[in-house]
Every structure is written in C-alpha cells, then in structure tokens.
C-alpha cells in the first residue's frame, strides 16, 4: 500500500455514523473517500459536503450522499489533503486548485484532519508554491504587483490558457521558498482587492495522519 493510501484510509476511521463529513480534494483524500464509499455500501449513514467538482463526481460515483454546505448547520469532521504542513499544523493547500471551497468547508467544521505523505511535513512553509486565487478582472495587474514585490508569481496554466477554478477564478502561484511570517503574509494577501483567497491555512488542522513505511503516524495539534 502506498503512503497516500495508508494515510487516506486510516483517516476514515475517525468517521462515525450520523456525521456530516467534509470531503476534501486531491490524490490522498481520494483514498479516504473510496473507503467511505465502501462503508456507506455496508450501512454507514453519513452526509458528505464536497469541496470541488472532482470530489462531487467521485463521491457520487461511490454512492455517498451529498448535501450542500448551505443546508447544514455544522460539519462534524472534514478530511482533506495538504501540500505542506509545519509543526504548528499550519499548511499550504490548493495545489489542486480547490483551496476556496476547502477553506469555506474547513471553517465550518468542528474538526479537521489532513492526510499527507511524509514528504509534506516541513519545518517552514514555502517550498511549495503558495496558490493565490484571484478574479480574472485585473489578474495581470495583480501578477505584475506580485512581481514588483519579488514574490516570483506564475499564473497557473492548463492547456495553454489560465487554469480556471470551480468558481471561475484564476490562480497565481507565488514561489517564496520560505515563509517566515505566515500570519503577516496571510493578512497582507487578505487585504488585496481582487484576491479571493489564498492557500495559507493557519492552524488549519486538529490532527494530521501521515502515511509512513511503518504504518500511519498520527500527529495532534499541541
Ligand atoms: O487544491 C487541492 C487541495 O488543497 C489538495 O488537498 C492538496 O493539493 C493536496 O493534494 P494531494 O493529496 O493530491 O497531494
């Protein structure tokens, strides 16, 4: 079993009957969702809240009942992937472009678990490019502004055109190498007009499940 599968499947153990569960996006939580699909076939009763069109498609193909985030009072537990996680369980997310819905769902959740392979654990965030979701109008101006701030921006592309998120936005990836003050950076990005959201998830998880060669490792927030 690969490390992503180990982490993804282990996290499904935290789901209890009757829960409303946020279903993240990506290649690691894919294994969680598959496990949930099997459990649902065997009688587990949950409602899923999807974080992307791709997760909706996957969950539907597995027979997992989905509900809109607007129709739930609270989400008991969300399980999602991450691109980098530091020792304080701050993370970078959005490598798959789903950061906006993922953050909305995470903020509505009583508990958040991230499933990762060991390579995602870092001392300092920043090697992974930080995704910034922006509205298309004025995106080039924001891009040039980020360039002037020496943030090495790249507009994410797909098939020679800007990548478009599920909400119709673009993503500018910032190549920062090391984020020394994630809180300050998040506040600054939040203040920019045209920026919809960014991939810094500060204090983002209550627990992470890391898939390792000796089995899954569980790390809880201190
Ligand atoms: O936008 C995508 C999400 O934030 C993913 O959860 C993240 O990129 C990790 O994905 P993966 O498990 O495929 O590495």
Automatic annotation (TrEMBL):
The keyword Nucleotidyltransferase does not apply. Substrate binds at residues 25-28, 80-83, 93-96, 120. InterPro entries: NagB/RpiA_transferase-like, Ribose-5P_isomerase, Ribose5P_isomerase_typA_subgr, Ribose5P_isomerase_type_A. Keywords: Isomerase. Its EC number is 5.3.1.6. Belongs to the ribose 5-phosphate isomerase family. Catalyzes the reversible conversion of ribose-5-phosphate to ribulose 5-phosphate. This is Ribose-5-phosphate isomerase A. It comes from Fictibacillus solisalsi. The gene is rpiA.
């Amino acid at each position: 079993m690969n490390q992503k599968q180990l982490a993804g499947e282990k996290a499904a153990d935290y789901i209890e009957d009757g829960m409303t569960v946020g279903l993240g996006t990506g290649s690691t939580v894919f294994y969680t969702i598959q496990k949930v699909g099997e459990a649902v076939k065997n009688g587990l009763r949950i409602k899923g809240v999807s974080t992307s069109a791709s997760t909706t498609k996957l969950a539907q193909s597995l027979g997992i009942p989905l509900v809109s985030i607007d129709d739930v009072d609270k989400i008991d537990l969300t399980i999602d992937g991450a691109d980098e996680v530091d020792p304080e369980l701050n993370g970078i997310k959005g490598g798959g472009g789903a950061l906006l819905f993922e953050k909305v769902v995470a903020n509505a959740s009583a508990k958040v678990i991230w499933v990762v392979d060991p390579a995602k654990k870092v001392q300092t965030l920043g090697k992974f490019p930080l995704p910034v979701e922006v509205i298309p109008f004025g995106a080039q101006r924001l891009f040039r502004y980020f360039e002037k701030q020496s943030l090495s921006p790249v507009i994410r592309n797909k098939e020679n055109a800007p990548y478009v998120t599920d909400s119709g936005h673009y993503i500018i990836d910032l190549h920062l190498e090391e984020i020394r003050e994630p809180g300050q950076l998040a506040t600054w990005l939040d203040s920019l007009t045209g920026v919809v959201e960014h991939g810094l998830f500060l204090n983002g998880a209550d627990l992470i499940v890391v898939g390792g060669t000796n089995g899954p490792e569980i790390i809880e927030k201190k």
